[in-house]
Amino acid sequence: MDENQDRHLVNADVVGGADSAFGEARPTEIFSRHRRGQDAIEIRPYDFRRPERISKDQMRALQTLHDAFARNFGASLSGFLRTIIEVNVDQAEQMTYSEFLGSLANPTCFSLISGEPLEGQFCLEISPLIIYPIIDRLMGGNTRDLFVPQRPMTMIEMRLVRRILERGMHALVEAWGSIGKFDFQLGEMESNPQLVQIVPPNEVVVVIGFEVRMGERTGTMKLCLPYNVIEPVIEDLNAQNWFVTGRRDEQAARRAVIEQGLSEAPLELEVVLAESSITFDELQSLRVGDLITTPKPAKEPVVVSVGGSPKFDALLGTFRGNRAVRISERHGESATDQTSGNLDSTLQGGVEPQDSSPGAAQGGVVDASG
User: Fold this and answer.
1) Rounded-to-integer distance, Cα 257 and Cα 78, Å
2) CATH number for the domain whose boundaries are 269-367
3) pTM score of the predicted model
4) What is the pLDDT of residues 165-177, one digit of tens each?
5) DSSP percent split of the chain into helix, strand, coil, nearest 5
């Protein structure tokens, strides 16, 4: 022990002895020049019964991962319910399973989720404040004057909710696809969360809180991830290339959602047989059975428009007793630009040519009687 250490110990004994001499029971304090300016340090209590087993970087990675899940799930619900649904991550924190159950309402919508090859189950809870408006929307209501009942869900309501949550499973598979290949399946559903014990009460869980908004209705959704279930893949969240892969997969998932939504959008298809012009007096004098002549030959291709825009040229004919058109080429392209097999890859089905009278071969005729 050197002289400097002896001097510090002597000074400490003097300070302690002086406090005792004046009758003040103060703890002995040792001051050092290396600890100056440390008064602003925030001191937090550490609870050994509730250790933080997941680092802050891993928590941020989990939150980023479920941001993608929230966007995909919201887009899927918006297309399914034909209304705007917003799902956003509200919080991500660690707690014990007993604390998670204590924060839930009773009754509520409580579901179990299995994810092969992970061993164990997740929990998904949706507040009645938003699940009943969604059910009302499925049943054709407007959710404006909806009264949220304080009762367990019926069997019919559970089947409707299962259809909604199954879409969430697809979004969860896409979000977790940046870590590995998982098969998330919806399991049992319960109204009383206190009856479900998937892990011991003191087990650490990660709770991802979401805010679900539909019009003027807002509710919460909580996803519970037990640590012992996600422990085999928790180290994968530390990889630096996970965020790059996550962004790339997120863009691909967003593109797939947009393409799926566009593929289900209805479009108006119309076929323009011929065009002609008449005067207003001729229009007023038209009667049922009158014929309108056009300069267009009957065998000339007609124009097929999609959403008001000309897209294809087609041949007029019949198919199984109904009037039909057969796509021949894209509108505006010449016949020399088309390959020999292009006609067979457009519209199959043997459209028979439309019979025409000798007089109609030189000019098209539109029957005003329909």
Assistant:
1) 11
2) 2.30.330
3) 0.53
4) 988 899 888 888 8
5) 35, 25, 40
